[in-house]
Amino acid sequence: MEIRPATLDDIVAITEVHKGDVPDWYRGFGDSSVPAPYETLSVFERYMAGGPWMSVETCAIHVNQLLLHDLPPIVVVADGQVVAEAEFYIGEEGAPYGKTLDISVLYVHPQAQGKGIGGALLTYLVDRAERKECRCITVVPGPRGFYQHYGFSEIYERPHLLVNARKTNLAYAIAEIDVETPWKVVTGLPMPIGRYTSSRQEWERHKMITYHLPELATCLHRRVRITTEQAEAVAILGQHSPFDDALVAHAWTANMPVNELVSILRNECIVSGYNRLRMLIDEEIVHTPLTCEPVERDSSTCMVRWLQPPLR
């Protein structure tokens, strides 16, 4: 078994690893979808079944972006075949995380599972985090028991809220930020809203979310700097797919009160032409109760392995 950084020569094999996790393929979407052979689907239909890894065209764009940012995916080769793939982001965040390695992807082909390959890949990533002197490793887990076995002892259930957009009387200024602005604009800032994976990944992935697919190019996407008399924040408001009827918010700030930030985001949702807003709240950062009442409430799990004490 060999564990190594991926190259563009691995694209087809990486796609096959991820396709192995999809039991059935469909043409169309929602109530109009019907079973169909993979070969007959458009690139967009494949993308909607599980992301850019579902087709060599979008997977090549995705992996190339990671390579350009010095974040090569890691693959496991067994018997001459790529049988597993992992992706990670390393970035500086605000308290409590500090320098974080976030495992954004860890997939083992179904036919290769149960052979210790996932554990070997995870151990490789832990070693990478230690060598990079990261404070912690975070992951949105699949099987919790697997990660607990490797020292991911803290489990956070983060509220995922859908709220109605609403006008605000708060005075603030807003400036659009170019989509190609480097992630360092949010380096070291706490991310109270929208930290589903890591701060860096949420910033970076929105730069390449269209994958040159016309269907995704129609999605609304705004990056803005918000300024009040006493505070500042950076935010992303956008759709993840053209079928979203609500905007998704991501926000970074070191000094803006969370309820003030939420009020401004709800107002900007109206400005953008939408009536509802989705927000994932990181309660390791947000300690103030929200004053808005959600229309829907769900939760998302995050697991952490601390390599150094949390920042306070």
Q: Summary?
A:
About 25% of the residues lie in helices and about 30% in strands. The chain is an alpha+beta fold. It has a twelve-stranded mixed beta sheet with strand order 1-4-5-6-7-14-8-13-12-11-10-9, with helices on both faces. A two-stranded antiparallel sheet has the order 2-3.
In words, what does this structure look like?
With 312 residues, the protein is an alpha+beta fold. It has a domain of 142 residues. It has eight helices and 14 strands. The strands form two sheets. It has a twelve-stranded mixed beta sheet with strand order 1-4-5-6-7-14-8-13-12-11-10-9, sandwiched between helices. Helix 4 links the parallel strand 6 and strand 7. It is globular and about 65 Å long. The N and C termini lie far apart (41 Å). 35% of the residues are buried. The mean pLDDT is 94.
Order of helices and strands: EHEEHHEEEHEHEEHHEEEHEE
Give the helix proportion (percent range). Answer: 10-25%
Radius of gyration: 20 Å
Strand order of the largest sheet: 1-4-5-6-7-14-8-13-12-11-10-9
What is the CA–CA distance across the termini? 41 Å
Q: Number of DSSP strands? A: 14
Global geometry: globular
How many distinct helices? 8
Q: What is the strand content?
A: 25-35%
Q: How does the helix and strand content classify structurally?
A: alpha+beta
Poorly predicted spans: none
